[in-house]
Amino acid sequence: MLDIQRLLGDLGVPYWTSGKNVSEGWVSISCVMCGDRSNHGAFGPDGWSYSCFRCGKHKVRKVITTLSSWEEAGNLIKEYSSLMSFHETANKERASNVEWPPPNTVKMPSIHAEYLHARGYDPKQLRDLYGIECCYQTGAFKYRILIPVYLDGRIMTYIGRDITDKAGLKYKNLSETKSVLPAKNTVYNIDNIHDTAIICEGVFDAWRFGAHGVAMFGLQYTAQQTRALASRLKRAFIVFDNEPQAVEKARELGAELSFQGVEVEIVSISQKDPGEMSQEEADEVKAELLHDL
Question: Whole-model pTM above 0.90?
């Protein structure tokens, strides 16, 4: 049996074991073979088969290669394909500190700056406010913007956003064994909020709302994240993407936070996601939501 859930988790790949498009016993992802955005790809119960509703069947090693490299895929399959390996991996200790800045980081190349400008962000401002770094042509995070994740003033982990839009994985997480905490055990930008926050799916969405914006690192969220938010917040505005699955998850998250004593409002936007807003549009939304602060 291939322990595909732990393998995906260590690669930082979001996956689903229930919900829309997920068959019982299967592990679903947004298919990296066809650019799918709605978890149509799925690994079989034993981890050794893979099929996508849109683009069909693929060899498991080929899928994992798309997420890493051919050589690394072989090593990962070997590592996660036995019970003994499962226990060895499960019991690995996490890092006491995250190396920052990581190896192979460079002063922001023009290709990274152009990518951010094209999306309506100020590269210098993001570096000053959030401490982003860049990798260029070498290393495991090449052609990615590196985004540190802080908790109580310490870097817990980091994620890398591909700037080429050609990588199979848009976001790549630092492995759990090299992290103090995995991203899904905390909330992006949580150090900067007090009793009110604008909760988004992704980091780029949260950047639109400045110090009040936080991100869940994707549509799926964990109990650790809801507890972290509930412990700090009196009021929350949830601004997820406007597609049906995201709207449903926003309502679920709102219900959980409300149950834990947080005053919650679900906010609808006309754009596909907050990251597609202009900064002026985002500022208007933020001013409307936070007018009484």
Answer: no
Q: In 3D, which of 198, 125, 177, 236 has the Cα closest to residue 11? A: 177
- CATH 3.40.1360.10 domain position(s) in the chain: 190-289
Collapsing DSSP states into helix, strand and coil, what is residue 252?
A: helix
Q: What fold, for 4-90?
A: DNA Primase; Chain A (3.90.580)
Residue 128 phi, psi dihedral angles, 5° rounding: -70, -40
**The pLDDT value given to residue 104:** 93
What are the residue ranges of helices labelled H in the chain? 4-11, 60-67, 70-79, 83-90, 110-118, 123-130, 203-207, 223-232, 244-259, 279-289
Please name the fold of domain 190-289: Dna Topoisomerase Vi A Subunit; Chain: A, domain 2 (3.40.1360)
Tokens of 100: 């920052």
d(CA 159, CA 172): 6
Render pLDDT for 144-172 as a digit per residue (tens, 0 to 9): 999 999 999 999 999 999 999 888 778 88
Tokens 């930082």 locate to 12
CA–CA separation, 150 and 189 (whole Å): 7
Asked if the peptide bond before residue 109 counts as cis, ω within 30 degrees of 0, the response is no
Which tokens belong to 153? 């003033």
Least confident of 74-83, 108-117, 129-138, 149-158: 74-83
Q: How many CA atoms lie within 13 A of 234 on its CB side?
A: 3
Q: List Cα–Cα distances, 216 to 68, 94, 119, 178, 222, in angstroms.
A: 23, 21, 20, 20, 9
Is residue 174 within 8 Å of residue 158, measured between CB atoms?
Answer: yes
Check: CATH 3.90.980.10 for 105-185? yes
